[in-house]
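Good morning,

Both structures are done.
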Amino acid sequence: MYPGAHAATHPDKAAMIMADTGEVTTFAQLDDEANRIAQLFHAAGLRPGDHVAFCMENNQRFLPLAWGCHYAGLIYTAMSSRLTTEEMEYIINNCGAKAFVTSSYKREQAAELLDKMPNVAMRLMLDGVIEGFESYEDAVAAFPAEPIDGRVAGFDMLYSSGTTGMPKGILPSTEPGPLEETSTGVYGLLGLLFGMDTEKVYLSPAPLYHAAPLRFCMATQAHGSTVIVMERFDPEAYLAAIETHKVTHSQVVPTMFVRMLKLDEAARKAYDVSSLETIIHAAAPCPIAVKEQMIDWFGPVIHEYYAGTEGNGFVYCNSEMWLGHKGTVGMPINCTVHIVGEDGEDVAGPGDEGTVYFEGGSTFEYHGDEAKTKDSRHPKGWSTLGDVGKLDEDGFLYLTDRKAYMIISGGVNIYPQEAENILTMHPKVFDVAVIGVPNADFGEEVKAVVQLADGVDPSDGVGRELIDFCKEHLADVKCPRSVDFRNELPRHPTGKLYKRLLKDEYWAGHDSRII
């Protein structure tokens, strides 16, 4: 399905509403704009399989642009609006983009990119224009809102920063098919697992350039439902949007749960969230105490999945499943999960940890990087996202941490997620990262880098308090030996913590294991 199918039956229904401004895009408007964009790219010589890159903040043009690429059969790469110019240059050239679209929000970096993307023939800018770029609005308006002939469905190729090195372009193994007959895996999951239909309202609080928000928003519109797009996440504004729009579905990351739980009680109780049917969370491990509190608050409407942009496997649990197996990320529903030891073989049995591999899911490759693709594969053809975990006796998967984040101190393997889960719940902590830093005797030692809650001043006493708090719940070796304080941690708006940036800082001049 696609928006045009719903524009024919309910053209005036809202396909998208911007939460801050209340701007509405109807299904008829969305379909018309997507057709004009497809016409524009087609007239410029782009054909199915060609690449388009775009970089902008959440705005009313974002999803129509993605659908226009989709209607034209193009491969579209949405980039984070927080990237550096160097990172943008790499992705634009690595994906082989023939067109690049951005907004005036990124005008300074757009100017720096002008002579750094030699293969880009079309450069468009929203909300203003600079030398070397055409007006996006004028370019789109010049074309008819009629479908191009012989439409095939496009698809995204998004980039995952991973934990090391340059971003990886994730190219799914997708065969082109007629637009009218093609649907995505996320479309099916939304309907089968999460009860999406034409009467639902989906709230998206995250940046649209990230894989899950982009794919779930487009799949929601393909179902004929309304998407509410927040320009940026704010915990109280999120609750207000649920009440205002009678939201039934939403997807968040655990950091957003934590931010909502840290609101004062009056703010938490001020909004009616009874319309919620499904809250989905993913992208990072969720501390058990956080999820328990969210289920108590929102009810048993919380669903979790473990998957990656790569689409190579999908693990799922609802609230009832999780309450019976606290800490799990779920059971595989379209694949087989293998826990593989250092010898490359399946571990002996339940409870034994190893690298998590998927068998039977979709296939993918890292665009233009055979070595990275090979590194993700097991000799038996299984693939991994690089996480460490274990299965219990009932087949539920539990994640330990990413293998690349493991700290080795005096020969002991330490997974920092355990300490992070504890420290996150301390009332004086707003955000925390636990990393390994150089130690002359042990190779590495555990350090916590903390952003304190409002009104709490950093001090040696607070640092000792946090270390002692951690030791009340975990073995000494797993707890930080020192605490540093920061005004803000390098966290992506999707909730992903850029530990690599912290590690690079602390390991400068040392032989870090992370390169």
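Second structure follows.
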Amino acid sequence: MSIMNKKRTRNEVRAEMLEKGQADNVKSTAFSRSRDQKQCPFGEYGTCCKLCALGPCRINPGKSDSMLGICGADADTIAARNFARMIAAGTAAHSDHGRQVTRMFLATARGELQGYEITDNRKLSMVAGLYGIQTDGKSKEKIAEEIGVKALAEFGQQDGELTFLKRAPKKRQELWRELEIAPRGIDREVVELMHRTGMGTDQDYHNLMLQASRCALADGWGGAMIATELQDILFNTPGDLGDTRQIVSGEVDLGVLKDDEVNIVMHGHEPLLSEVLVQASKDPKLQELAKSKGANGINLAGICCTANEVLVRHGIPVAGNYSQQEIAILTGAVDVMAVDVQCIMEGLMNVAQCYHTKVITTSSKAKLPNTIHIELSEGNPVETAKEIIRIAIENYSHRGKVNIPSEKTDAVVGFSHEFINYMMGGTYRQSYRPLNSNIIDGRILGVAGVVGCDRPYSRDLDVHSELVKELIANDVLVVQTGCSALSCAMEGLMVPEAAYEYAGPGLREVCEALGIPPVLHAGSCVDNSRILIALSEMVNIGRTQSGDIDHRVYLGDDISDLPVAGCCPDWVHEKAIAIGHYFVASGVGTFFGPSLQVTNAPGFREYLYSGIAESLGGKWGFGATAGEMAGLIIDHIKEKRSALGLEEQKERVLYDMEMRRKLEVR
């Protein structure tokens, strides 16, 4: 594959499409609304409190050190409550996604649901082992049923610990127990955090952030991880096709839409809808129906995290990320946009009414005014998918003028934890040893997880791609999820050739040896849990089966020891704050931009940026620009390398046969 030399930047394409929208009588888009909307400085800086009827209270410590809310709450308390509530809301979003997947998983195992099946038997056995389920003599459906029952119970569990916490390094588990922040049950932690942040309850931000940590961990090591693992069992782990493993490739950007085919854009987060749409679109009868209406076929494309789900598993093309959902309709080529939950703009209908596009909602949790609602059936979802496709086919002939930008870019994707493990050692010697070894040798400086959303603001430069280019130029291997991944894919950073153009010499050498991009696409926003498992494996590989240290690949006893960082260059949804904090609570230095709503709370801000590391090992950081964030990440990784004694690059060790025989296979 080659990186396409684009004649136009993404901003130029966006400007052209917005001009088309104006000509087509589109009254507003997210871009025009963001230009016209003036941000509230109190809300932006974290010191607006509207949690009771005494206010809203707006605190500006810069004007007076004694400024307090009517109840006496100071800026630090107000900002901490607001921050913690975002963690609760983000955890609720991911976990409700996980709950819905678990319910469908359980119904599939019981034979109550058509269209899905148990696909990944390897992961089925692994997850069964974590839940303590015996598999001998049982059908895969019976094993899946027992997993589903236990997983579903963890959402309402009141005591004990979540099962997947045991996947973290032992030292990290001990720390969580010592701090009493090991999550007991997913819903319990959300409810308790909402209670504590209510008026007149928890007013010590140190104490409040302990529960916020517990809640965030219930997301990363609970709801989100359950969603990822059960989705993999149902739909296949990215890069894993039954008995074979292979890289997945696809195309990204508006150019994936077809002017001579029925275009169905899938948007949202739960792959329960998109998976059956992929399956139903192959139906010969529907293909024939499309041709009878003058179309050459049925073209599926994704937006946002639904796009990531079908891209990493099937190579289904992606029309864009969050900020491009309205722009896709502006092309005039979208016959149906089918949506489920999360990150769906109400403004879609303002745009769709100017074209022939039909917007179809499919979840009772997420309805939009003036749309078609077709509930995703919990008995036969494939029939729901076929109905959506038939509507799109019938709508094809109603198109007006179509203008599809030619821009699209190749992307190599599907780098799940399991595939990365396999990629570095093959079927029989799969291991994170080569990754740790290259970090110790200095060819890879460290690893950064770069995730997050994208805002519909006009920028000269894309903050995600500019940050990632800076990191890989400094030999930092980047792993991505969500809309951040799509931004970098559209910039051509997810093909192996990108290493030659953008990566530093050490990272380039590793990418060349493995045939991989310098930026690895790991999935959707719930799939940040894959990164947690990868980090745990980097720790675990440093010890032998007897527990002794293997200094050839040892990078510490805990995630907090690793030369790694997390980063969200841009964020929109509260899920991003929940993700950021479960990385911090797992021991990772995590850096956000271009804003973080704690600016006017000096005590709380300093606690997040520094003090919290004393207890959790991870901390928050903030950078207003891509360059600032890149500098913070690189400095953080270098500090971790220094603590491990890895300041100097070591010479490559060429193993002879005797040395290879001594290697332990784990």
